[in-house]
């Protein structure tokens, strides 16, 4: 897999990492970094615009946070569920939601390699 | 330009918290504000909205948009904050467990509001309620 590019679109990342696409959303969004965390205020205080946000939080508030903090996508770790309300919100707000059976650490390592960190 | 917006923030409804800040975000984007300004307003306002839902049984949001600043006033008739200095500390929280399991209650809300706004005023009285006034300046 091609590594060390500065940015990937959400669609490209999903393919490169073999992620399940739960909600396609705006898959052309550029990913320029990553952030890991499940405490929503922590994420709002620390995540940067364009981050792929790796979390186990699949509720409607997580989708709201992704929108407000301008995260490029939500990446659900460890096959965490996206509840129905959250899915609806993600669809209407075009927030890409991806999923993997891997844990947060493994996903962060892979993302970091792809981004050349 | 002088746009005034008003929203009711219903209590005990986490799914609807964030509606007002989401709408304000969209409005500011449409008006052509810098992404950084839009983001700071949206996050600060959302934290305030969530606080009204968790701690005060809901409230109201008034937003004033001017070319050089955005002011958000959040007013509730909840229990008030007995010790504001303590509440402003990172990690201090009285949020119940059911709120924590949703990912809130990290005690970072007020610190985030302070971080993302240029001025923050907290007017609170125990037993009467709380009013938060935050202003985000457009620099440049
Ligand atoms: N609108 C409010 N009404 C009453 N108490 C509040 C309000 N906003 C914040 N507080 C108090 O301040 C504390 C810290 O708030 P915050 O930093 O947002 O953290 P959190 O909401 O995660 O507990 C809260 O736990 C609560 O005790
Ligand atoms: Mg809070």
Summarize the SSE layout with pairings.
The complex is a heterodimer of chains A (117) and B (140).
Chain A: E1 8-9, H1 10-17, E2 20-23, E3 30-31, E4 33-36, H2 40-46, E5 51-55, H3 60-68, E6 73-76, H4 84-93, E7 97-99, H5 104-114
Parallel strand pairs in A: 4-5, 5-6, 6-7
Antiparallel strand pairs in A: 1-3, 2-7
Helix pairs in contact in A: 3-4
Chain B: E1 3-10, H1 19-30, H2 35-56, E2 58-66, E3 69-76, H3 84-87, H4 97-100, H5 109-116, E4 119-125, E5 129-137
The structure holds adenosine-5'-diphosphate (ADP) and magnesium ion.
What would the keywords be for this entry?
heterodimer; A: 117 residues; alpha/beta; Udp-n-acetylmuramoylalanyl-d-glutamate--2,6- Diaminopimelate Ligase, Chain: A, domain 1; five-stranded mixed beta sheet; B: alpha+beta; Heat Shock Protein 90; five-stranded antiparallel beta sheet; binds magnesium ion
Q: What small ligands are held by the chains?
A: adenosine-5'-diphosphate, magnesium ion
Helix content estimate of chain B = 25-40%
H and E string of chain A:
EHEEEHEHEHEH
What fold name stands as the CATH topology of chain A?
Udp-n-acetylmuramoylalanyl-d-glutamate--2,6- Diaminopimelate Ligase, Chain: A, domain 1
């Amino acid at each position: 897999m091609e590594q060390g590019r500065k940015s990937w679109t959400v669609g490209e990342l999903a393919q490169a990492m073999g992620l399940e696409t739960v909600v396609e959303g705006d898959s052309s969004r550029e990913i320029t970094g990553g952030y890991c965390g499940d405490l929503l205020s922590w994420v709002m205080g620390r995540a940067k615009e364009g981050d792929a946000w790796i979390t186990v939080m699949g509720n409607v508030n997580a989708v709201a946070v992704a929108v407000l903090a301008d995260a490029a996508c939500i990446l659900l770790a460890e096959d965490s569920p996206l509840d129905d309300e959250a899915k609806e919100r993600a669809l209407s707000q075009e927030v890409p939601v991806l999923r993997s059976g891997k844990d947060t650490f493994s996903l962060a390592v892979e993302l970091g390699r792809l981004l050349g960190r | 330009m002088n746009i005034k917006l008003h929203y009711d923030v219903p209590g005990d409804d986490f799914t609807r918290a964030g509606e007002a800040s989401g709408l304000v975000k969209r409005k500011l984007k449409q008006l052509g504000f810098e992404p950084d300004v839009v983001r700071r307003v949206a996050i600060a306002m959302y934290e305030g909205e969530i606080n009204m839902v968790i701690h005060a049984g809901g409230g109201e949001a008034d937003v004033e948009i001017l070319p050089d600043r955005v002011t958000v006033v959040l007013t509730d008739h909840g229990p008030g904050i007995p010790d504001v200095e303590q509440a402003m500390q990172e990690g201090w929280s009285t949020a119940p467990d059911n709120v924590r399991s949703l990912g809130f209650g990290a005690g970072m809300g007020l610190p985030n509001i302070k971080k993302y706004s240029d001025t923050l005023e907290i007017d609170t009285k125990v037993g009467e309620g709380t009013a938060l006034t935050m202003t985000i300046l457009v620099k440049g």
